[in-house]
Write a structure and sequence with these properties.
- The chain is α+β, with helices and mostly antiparallel strands and 263 residues long.
- The protein has 9 helices and 9 strands.
- The protein folds into 2 domains: 87 residues, Phosphorylase Kinase, domain 1, CATH 3.30.200; 161 residues, Aminoglycoside 3'-phosphotransferase, Chain: A, domain 2.
- The strands form 3 sheets. Strands 1-2-3-5-4 form a 5-stranded antiparallel sheet, with no helix packed on it. The chain has a two-stranded antiparallel sheet with strand order 6-9.
- Strand 7 and strand 8 form a beta hairpin.
- The two termini are 14 Å apart.
- The relative contact order is 0.14.
Length: 263
């Protein structure tokens, strides 16, 4: 991976144009599809997100910006200070926030805090730009793999192709969804949970966000049931079997996606 030319980047970003990289302590942050850095000095504390070029083959940046703006209006996402059409963003750091750990997720209070912004988003009635079609995404990512990797994933893809038509009949609802709730995209703040990185946001099944959290946290069946119960508290019925099916399909989608980036 090539080193970042922060001097040139600063010149591209209006809030940074009159400043210099030497004015900041720059610390790398975790990220799979982007390079993220925290920029800190006595006056400023920001997060700089630099998209990897490969991600823009898959991501609609205009839709991301519009969907994130809607999520900001719901007060479940931090509002960027600046962004451009490539997905380069500068966002104020959220004070005293951190991604949940497995120990955090063992507590009912943490699960309740995490499902609160999800319920607000899912039940908002907002129409996000874009609509995810799991069968099309799997087909697309699979087609981008090398012949060797396609052979490795062939049996899993065939099983998914048999399951998907049945899944669509059982789960026809599409709602505004984040669609990438790995633990790094959940930030536990002092009084709420923030959802960050809205690259894959679109209309999707409500199971998508829940299944992603379960997979990212490595939940067993009992832990998944607890998350589902917390989400359904106060109304709503969700099926454990559908959540399990989505977990398997989204794990395959994630594996294919990461393989396209590496390959």
């Amino acid at each position: 991976m090539n080193p970042v030319d922060f001097k040139q980047l600063f010149l591209r970003i209006p809030p940074l144009a009159e400043l210099a990289p030497e004015d900041f302590t720059i610390t790398p942050l975790p990220g799979y599809t982007n390079r993220n850095y925290r920029l800190v000095n006595q006056r400023h504390d920001w997060v700089l997100r630099i998209p990897q070029p490969a991600t823009n083959r898959f991501i609609d940046r205009d839709a991301e910006a519009a969907n994130q703006a809607a999520a900001c209006d719901l007060e479940i996402a931090p509002r960027p200070l600046w962004r451009d059409s490539s997905g380069l963003t500068l966002t104020p750091t959220l004070d005293a926030s951190h991604s949940p750990t497995p120990d955090d997720l063992a507590h009912s209070a943490t699960l309740q805090a995490i499902v609160a912004p999800l319920r607000r988003l899912h039940r908002s009635g907002i129409r996000f730009q874009g609509r995810v079609q799991l069968d099309r995404l799997l087909t697309r990512y699979y087609s981008l793999l090398s012949p060797q990797l396609r052979e490795r994933y062939r049996l899993r893809i065939q099983a998914a192709q048999q399951l998907l038509p049945l899944l669509q009949d059982r789960d026809p609802v599409y709602i505004a969804s984040h669609n990438d709730l790995v633990l790094e995209n959940l930030l536990l703040g002092q009084d709420r949970v923030w959802l960050i990185d809205w690259e894959f946001s679109a209309m999707a099944s409500p199971y998508w966000d829940l299944a992603t959290i379960c997979n990212a946290a490595g939940f067993d069946a009992q832990q998944s049931r607890r998350l589902l119960d917390a989400y359904c508290a106060g109304g709503g019925v969700m099926e454990e079997s559908l959540l399990s099916d989505y977990r398997n399909l989204l794990q395959l989608l994630s594996d294919c996606w990461m393989a396209t980036l590496v390959g």
